[in-house]
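Could you please consider the sequence and fold appended to this message?
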Amino acid sequence: MKNFVFKLESLLKYRRHRRDLCRQLLADVFADDRRLLENRAALEQQRAGQIGEIRALHAPGRIDIDRTAARRYFAGHVQTDMLFIDRDRAIVGEQLSRCQQALMQADREVKVLEKLRDKQHADFRYGQNRDEGRELDEMWMATHLTEESRR
């Protein structure tokens, strides 16, 4: 009995590998986005801390202009860093979209080949079963004819 051999198995392996690479890239981009979110949250906390210190410095009594100016300057830099992170997140969002589209396309290409392989395998099994049935019929006929010729 012959074994089924899918002629496009190497192409299927290649497309699966490409799909796995797309998945890995998508995971990496998600990790980048998560890192940017964490960095932005840390900057928001720093900015809130600076603003809190500015408010504390404006308490009734003596106002320390130098310390207040330094806090405002630092808060401004933190705000700028947050804007850069927002810009980077927009870029990462585009990368996520492209990676998801590439992954969906790669997955479709794999599924097409897998369906083709499954169909060819089913056709192969059907042909094998048909041939085996024919051989059994021929053996039965040969045995039956031999018995009848002996009578």
About this structure: The radius of gyration is 35 Å. The longest helix spans residues 65-150. The chain has a mean pLDDT of 91. The helical segments are 9-57, 65-150.
